[in-house]
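Sample pair:
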Amino acid sequence: MFFSVQNRESGVTLIELLIAMALSGIILGTIAGIFIIQRKTYDTQEQITEIIMTARAATDMITREVRMAGYYNPIGGTEMQRSDPIKTNFVGIPYAPKQLQIISDLNDDGSTTGPNENITYAYYDKTNQIKRKTGKGYFQPFSENIEEFKFDYLDSAGNTTTSTADIRQIKITITARTSKPDPDYSANGGFRKYTLISTITPRNLML
């Protein structure tokens, strides 16, 4: 007895193939869209974190140094140093509208010529930098991508003053911005910004 086997297998029709390709395209497009959105969100959060850290790091460093302004050991150093006119009228923070100068006697030698005892900060708007110098040296980049560095001199009542003798507090405003513009962010030319304001009271200026 003979049996015949009929092959009932059939191929995929063109319509089925087109439907499968369309569905695959939709799925892949959705996945790609989600990935792009997540990537943009990650980049945005990374930029925000960066500008916050930039502003905080600069503020923390300046705050530590401002707090030591005016520290001076009158019994340190030689007789010549102690009789120096600057020592009899020691100024921790002299008034200057364009730069912030911080003077102290950190090593108790009766002079302010030691490392980091005479520090000056200034803002360079053309390069968006805060620059710093010590002693008679040159200004060096201190903080990058800074849109604003502002300092106000305050008296004991918290009022703005231009008199060196009345300076008791320093109000510092630092605005950091992203290093490059975001085309999807319409404000501020595409640059995200973060502003940090801190009021510092150097204890040695209260004496």
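Residues 70 and 92 are 4 Å apart (CA to CA).
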